[in-house]
Specification:
heterodimer; A: 350 residues; alpha/beta; Rossmann fold; 12 helices; 22% strand; B: 488 residues; Pyruvate-ferredoxin Oxidoreductase, domain 3; seven-stranded mixed beta sheet; 17 helices; binds thiamine diphosphate; binds iron/sulfur cluster; EC 1.2.7.7 (chain A); coiled coil (chain A); oxidoreductase (chain A); THDP-binding (chain A); 2-ketoisovalerate ferredoxin oxidoreductase (chain A)
């Protein structure tokens, strides 16, 4: 093990390499460029490939190729570039190719700005590309988690033969924190019998997402759906803080959850029963846990760096058991703990 | 309807099991279509070179989307236009394989135009077979980038015009201007002579890959009777009379002999190699430091001009804090705060897990210029510290509920021989006053942060100078502040 003070974006790349990722294909964009730069620096030193692709479209298709050949591979971008990857992600899901894609979300729509936002929740969590597919989405909130989830993402991508996404933001990517890096994993016993590796064993294999006959495609979709159902049963991850006696339950992910943790501390100092439920996987979403908490809490307060996207999933989970309020900032404005505390106090006063 | 391929090469399946329907021996191509002939020529070349086991065939979107029904090799079907990008990923991940990107003119020259250009320019070690039939066959006969002037298609019902659609694109000529490709040829499949020429070109292009010489592409003028709405025989005449004059056959580039084969490096990397590659080999010591408990939280804003080493100051504190087992975060200024040549960062050193890394209410402000002092003083928490460079800032903090720590950092740094060490004087003063981290720890962290030896010793001297200042201030005020315990 080794501890290093490191930026989240760099930790993501080191984690990926420790997990056995040996190719990175990307196109520069702020605030995700450090990921490409770190990959460019480290991949050649571990026998891996780095290519600055001609576009995000090309990058995700290079990932499609490397994944087809059975290699652990990844790409990363930020919002506008992530939009361009969507077709490719849909193909990866359709062809059942394991790969990891990070979206370091910035302000939008359009060119927006380079400040942290969460306005890509819909396009990251709800598919984004065409067709019936789902992807596990991790929302790390520290440099350590950028490493840990990057490593875990590769394992889950292999386990399900499906892309796994990491949705982060400029703060989590730019912030430096100590990270404990494990030893490199001996590239695990992967089942690569499906891949196309350019050898006699895999010569009969085909990587494809076409199923021309409706019944065949439906059967394929059923098979995919069974995987997604399994993910929903087993891959939900969340974290709670001071939640057991909470009357007001804050819900936020990524960098927001860090601010909310401070809010909880301050509210508790004032004697307010405030707790935090932080979704770690945005899909599958911790709906069940939220539904359980809905029986106990008086109000949910969802805080998002968007005009309210995750809040829809919270509402679906809560099913009118308790009021769900939303406090949002966007465009790169990150609310301070004081600001949110003020909001809570206003709520209490009614 | 479909055309039967007689005497199949090994690289083509005898029975097309993947093809839906009852007929598993005929291809899905229309009578007179060029795709089937080219498939056969490619399969023969694969046989001749003995590389069927190593071959990965990339099927595009277009009429050849189902090429994997036929080729008895590894098959990958891909998105429209992206075959060169996918082939890049395949070849890089599996450098021993023989990768074939097979593409139509819509796929290669329209939607995938940049992908082919860039793959060729990178000199990717794969082979492209480019079927130019001047039309979109699969979608029912729309215009392609290679559709001829005056040619009628479903989307140029009055004929392609220069004004509206521009000229047909000559792919070989275009790609031959690039340095990287080693072999580019255009052939046709109109008669026995031209088919023989195509056969040779296909073989040469694949051999070029087997020999690891570089990027190769063969463009084949090919008929699409269905799309052109003519009989197969007329289609061949159309190629000869209409297409060949605009798309002359011939070798556009051949530097195979001059190029050295690209070396194939195969090396295994041990865990130790990887840790070294990731620069993680010497993080061991830090990993063993125990976590501190219960020392409160120091939430700092550090600000000054760009060039004063503000970010470095924060980094050095965070690095030392980490070494000593504290929870730390370091966040550079981001967004609107960055404007106007000022630099600032947020640093938190804490005994427990840090919440928001963004410091909205600091309990320590380090201000190395006057605008920073003026701007951030109001946000400081009650009882907080303001450490400021009293040799540069000609005012004092105005609040009475804070502790001012004037340190002539720049002046002291100048005395040590470099103004640029003022940041380390300031850091030393903070340490001397608060003992938030140890002096030894701060000095021990320097070699990891600064590369040049003389800078290490300068910074060390600056830290020690600062520590003296901090201690004097503390003695003068006769208050032990600890590590900002309880404050936030
Ligand atoms: C992104 C996308 N856009 C459009 C299509 C529809 N499409 C399928 S094949 C094709 C044209 C193929 O023409 P060409 O590459 O010339 O091949 P041919 O069919 O003539 O062999 C188009 C536009 C698609 N599948 N995907
Ligand atoms: S439409 Fe044209 S290209 Fe497609 S199979 Fe028929 S003849 Fe061949």
């Amino acid at each position: 093990m080794a501890r290093e003070l490191i930026k989240g974006n760099d930790a993501l790349v080191k984690g990926a390499i420790l997990a056995g990722c040996r190719s990175y294909f990307g196109y520069p964009i702020t605030p995700a460029s450090e990921i490409a730069e770190a990959a460019a620096r480290f991949m050649p030193l571990v026998g891996g490939t780095f290519i600055q692709a001609e576009s995000e479209v090309a990058a995700i298709n290079m990932v499609y190729g490397a994944a087809s050949a059975g290699q652990r591979t990844m790409t990363a971008s930020s919002s506008p570039g992530f939009s361009l990857k969507q077709e490719g992600i849909s193909y990866c899901a359709g062809s059942e190719l394991p790969c990891v894609i990070a979206n370091i979300v910035r302000g939008g729509p359009g060119l927006g700005n380079i400040a942290p936002e969460q306005g890509d929740y819909f396009q990251t969590v709800k598919g984004g590309g065409h067709g019936n597919y789902r992807v596990i989405v991790f929302a790390p909130n520290s440099a350590q988690e950028m490493c840990d989830f990057s490593m875990l993402a590769f394992d889950l991508a292999d386990k399900y033969r499906n892309p796994v996404l990491i949705m982060s933001d400029g703060f989590t990517g730019q912030m430096m924190e100590p990270v404990d890096f494990p030893e490199p994993k001996p590239v695990p016993e992967r089942d690569e019998s499906w891949a196309v590796c350019g050898d006699a064993d895999t010569r009969p294999n085909l990587i494809s997402s076409i199923y021309l006959e409706p019944e065949e495609l439906e059967a394929h979709i059923k098979k995919l759906k069974a995987k997604y159902d399994e993910m929903q049963r087993t891959e939900v991850r969340y974290e709670e803080y001071e939640a057991d006696d909470a009357e007001i339950m804050l819900i936020g992910f990524g960098i927001v959850s860090r601010v909310l943790r401070s809010v909880v501390d301050r509210a508790r100092e004032k004697g307010l029963k405030v707790g935090l439920l932080r979704p770690i996987t945005l899909w599958p979403f911790p709906s069940k846990r939220i539904a359980q908490r809905a029986k106990q809490v008086e109000t949910f307060l969802v805080v998002e760096l968007s005009t309210g996207q995750m809040v829809e999933d919270v509402q679906l989970a809560v099913m009118n058991e308790a009021p769900v309020r939303l406090y949002w900032r966007a465009g790169g404005v990150v609310p301070t703990a004081e600001e949110i505390l003020g909001e809570i106090e206003k709520m209490i006063e009614g | 309807m479909a055309k039967k391929i007689l005497k199949k090469p090994d690289a083509l399946y005898d029975v097309f099991e993947r093809k839906p329907g009852v007929d598993k021996t005929m291809t899905h191509y229309c009578p007179g279509c060029g795709h089937g002939i080219l498939h056969k020529l490619i399969a023969e070349a694969i046989d001749d070179l003995g590389v069927a086991d190593r071959t990965i065939f990339v099927s595009p979107v277009g009429c050849s989307v189902f090429a994997y029904y036929y080729f008895d090799v590894g098959n990958v079907q891909v998105a429209h236009g992206r075959a060169p990008a996918v082939a890049t990923g395949l070849k890089r991940a599996s450098p021993n394989s023989i990768v074939i990107s097979y593409q139509g003119d819509g796929d290669l020259a329209a939607i995938g135009g940049n992908n082919i250009l860039q793959a060729a320019n990178r000199g990717e070690l794969f082979t492209v077979f480019f079927i130019n039939n001047g039309i979109y066959g699969m979608t029912g006969g729309q215009m392609a980038p290679t559709t001829l002037i005056g040619q009628k298609t479903t989307t140029t019902p009055y004929g392609r015009t220069i004004r509206n659609e521009g000229y047909p694109i000559r792919v070989c000529e275009l790609l031959a201007t690039l340095e990287s490709p080693v072999y580019i040829e255009r052939t046709a499949m109109t008669d026995a002579k031209n088919i023989a020429r195509t056969r040779r070109a296909v073989r040469k292009a694949l051999r070029c890959q087997v020999d690891r010489k570089g990027f190769s592409l063969v463009e084949v003028l090919s008929s699409c009777p269905s799309g052109w709405k003519v009989e197969p025989r007329e289609a061949l005449k159309w190629i000869e009379e209409k297409m060949m004059p605009y798309f002359p056959l011939g070798v556009y580039k051949d530097v195979i002999e001059e190029r050295e084969p690209v070396e194939l490096v195969e090396r295994t990397y041990t865990s130790a190699d990887i840790m070294k590659g990731l620069a993680l080999a010497d993080g061991e010591a830090a990993a063993r430091a125990p976590r501190h408990e219960d020392v409160g939280e120091m939430a700092m804003k550090i600000a000054g001009f760009g060039g004063q080493g503000i970010l470095f100051l924060g980094l050095a504190l965070a690095e030392t804090g980490m070494d000593e087992g504290l929870h730390v975060t370091w966040l550079p200024s981001y967004g609107p705060e960055m404007r106007g040549g000022t630099a600032n960062c947020h640093v938190i050193l804490s005994g427990r897990r840090v919440g928001a890394p963004l410091v909205s209410i600091p309990n320590v402000l380090i201000a190395l210029n006057r605008p920073s002092l003026e701007k951030f003083e109001p946000a400081l928490s009650e009882g907080g510290l303001i450490l400021y460079d009293s040799s540069l800032i000609d005012i004092s903090p105005s609040r009475k509920d804070i502790i001012p720590l004037p340190v002539p950092a720049t002046k002291l740094a100048d005395e040590l021989g470099s103004t640029r060490a003022a940041n380390m004087v300031a850091m030393g003063a903070l340490i001397g006053y608060t003992d938030v981290v140890s002096v030894d720890g701060a000095i021990a962290a320097l070699p990891r942060l600064v590369k040049r030896d003389e800078l290490i010793s300068l910074n060390e001297a600056a830290i020690r100078k600062g520590v003296e200042q901090g201690r004097q201030l503390r003695a003068k005020q006769k208050v032990a502040v600890g590590t900002g315990k309880g404050a936030r």
